[in-house]
Design a protein that fits this description.
Elements lengths: L3 E6 L3 E2 L13 H11 L5 E4 L7 E3 L4 H14 L6 E6 L5 H15 L4 H19 L6 H10 L6 H14 L4 H5 L4 H21 L4 H15 L6 H16 L3 H12 L2 E3 L11 H8 L3 E3 L37 H13 L7 H10 L6 H18 L6 E3 L7 E3 L7 H4 L2 H18 L6 H4 L8 H8 L2 H7 L8 H6 L4 H24 L6
Parallel strand pairs: 2-4, 3-5
Antiparallel strand pairs: 1-5, 3-4, 6-7, 8-9
Helix pairs in contact: 1-2, 3-4, 4-6, 6-8, 8-9, 8-10, 8-11, 9-10, 10-11, 13-14, 13-15, 14-22, 15-22, 19-20
């Protein structure tokens, strides 16, 4: 989209009221100091709705606009009253929301619920702008891709869940930054508990809704713990079914793991712990995972590889002995050790991965968890695809959106690009056998075309490739402690996978 340079009176520019960020920018004071001392490094990008007298911020920049207005009020300095801007012609409302979303994604600090609210706002706008009565999740995925914003249907489903289901009942926890892994954990817990409840009380299913909502509101707060909610649900199930809490725990755990627990006579009393253990021991049997990705209320099958809908990633995708949530919890334990000693990170990780037992499945699951966290926090989470039973546990679907090169400053673009290359290295994207990864990449992906045709120039021209000597100050130095810890752990997990494969004579790529 062509942009025109304009010098505009500050009073003629209004903040964008649909800005995805709902909380104060944590970088506000730093940005204010920077503008006060060095001026406005980047011009605001503005647009103008048809028939409007004022301009609005088009691509990020609401924080910079507030800072400029505050500085002008404080100082009266005319340098803040007229500012250079890049003007972009108006197209449609959804384009502006997406432009702000991209900018916030890259600059970081956007909570999962803020991003989810923005996507649902775009969903509504696309229906209105296209004259549709309704737009399905699949259609939204396609329309967003056409607009240059890649996001999977599975993630759209999670976002709808967090806004429509969780936001009314745990707003404090979400506003404080409850992330995608925790939201998915709550979602799986609700599905499992609802299934258990309906199997025991088929005529009283509505009561579960009241219980779940009441418990969520009771425990809502900045220090949200899903395990507390789980314990409360187990207590409700135990009391209603007149069984011991131990029995309720075992039943719910089996449902979460996708197994069916058969107890011939479901009559164990609250104090009869030993009989429960004897009864349930041999009764575990495998059963397919249940529940639908859109509706927690009803036992329906998860999508399979043959379904038309992109598959959500369940906790047992890698068939590990631990769920992805427990892997995430372990990794958080590793994170907490960063301040103790950087040298201990590989040692701590190796101890948790069970490297000595040659558990490639667990290592692959861990690599995917780390890569997904890194990518999500840096605005490219949609590019990470889990890879079960093969390779390094994950792959990259494509290069970052080329439009980012025009929207980001050099520092942010270099950080994003170098992180992408680090992830590509840990997934062996340019080394893996083509027959193992090409069928898994989208047909229209630039990365797929570059690998398929062995066109190195296409790849290098599509993702900024800096001198490797810049890695230290353009990537390592600027990563926060969480990202630095995850990057170190991901590289160590890569080494563990390769070592285990060599020691056991197993091929990493099959």
């Amino acid at each position: 989209m062509d942009a025109t340079v304009l010098v505009v009176e500050l009073g003629q520019i209004q903040p964008y009221e649909r800005n995805p960020r709902h909380s104060r920018n944590r970088e506000y004071d730093r940005i204010k100091d920077s503008i006060r001392n060095h001026g406005l490094d980047q011009p605001l990008i503005i647009t103008q709705r048809p028939g409007a007298a004022d301009y609005i911020v088009h691509t990020g920049g609401n924080t910079r606009l507030f800072v400029l207005k505050e500085l002008f009020e404080e100082t009266g300095d005319p340098c803040y009253s007229r500012i250079p801007c890049l003007y972009r012609p108006w197209r449609q409302e959804s384009d502006v929301v997406l432009a702000h979303l991209r900018e916030n994604d890259i600059r970081g600090g956007l909570t999962f619920v803020d991003k989810a609210r923005a996507i649902l706002e775009v969903w509504k706008l696309l229906a209105e702008e296209g004259g549709f009565e309704a737009v399905s999740q699949r259609q939204l995925e396609v329309e967003l891709r056409r607009a240059g914003y890649r996001i999977s249907q599975a993630l759209i489903s999670q976002m709808e869940y967090v806004v429509c289901r969780l936001l009314p009942v745990i707003p404090l926890a979400l506003e404080q930054g409850l992330g995608r892994p925790q939201v998915e954990r709550i979602r799986r817990l609700e599905r499992a508990a609802y299934t258990v409840w309906c199997e025991r009380f088929p005529d009283d299913a509505d009561q579960f809704e009241a219980i779940f909502v009441t418990l969520c509101r009771r425990y809502d707060g900045p220090d949200w713990e899903t395990d507390v909610l789980r314990g409360a649900l187990e207590s409700e199930i135990a009391e209603a079914a007149e069984v011991s809490i131990h029995t309720a725990k075992v039943i719910l755990e089996a449902e979460l793991a996708g197994r069916k627990l058969v107890i011939p006579e479901f009559v164990a009393g609250p104090d009869d712990e030993s009989s429960v253990t004897d009864d349930v021991g041999p009764c575990l049997s495998d059963a397919g995972a249940t529940q639908n990705s859109d509706n927690p209320k009803g036992p329906i099958a998860l999508p399979t590889q043959d379904d038309d809908v992109p598959q959500e990633v369940p906790g047992d995708l890698f068939e590990t002995t631990d769920s992805v949530e427990s892997l995430d919890h372990d990794l958080d334990d590793v994170d907490s050790g960063v301040t103790e000693s950087a040298e201990r990170i590989p040692e701590m990780l190796s101890a948790k991965t069970g490297t000595g037992s040659g558990d490639l499945k667990s290592l692959r699951g861990r690599a995917w968890t780390l890569a997904a966290r890194l990518a999500q926090r840096n605005g490219i989470g949609e590019l990470i695809e889990p890879l079960s039973g093969n390779g390094l546990g994950f792959l990259l679907r494509d290069v970052p959106d080329p439009a980012l090169a025009e929207q980001l400053d050099e520092d942010n673009l270099s950080r994003l690009s170098m992180l992408w290359w680090q992830l590509a290295a840990c997934a062996e994207m340019t080394f893996a056998p083509l027959e193992s990864i090409l069928p898994l990449l989208p047909a229209d992906a630039i990365l797929r075309r570059a690998l398929e045709t062995e066109d190195v120039d296409l790849l290098f021209s599509s993702i900024w490739t800096l001198d490797p000597g810049h890695t230290g100050y353009r990537l390592w130095r600027v990563l926060d402690e969480r990202d630095w810890s995850d990057l170190l752990n991901l590289m160590d997990t890569y080494r563990c996978i390769r070592r285990v494969a060599e020691d056991t004579g197993v091929s990493v790529w099959v």
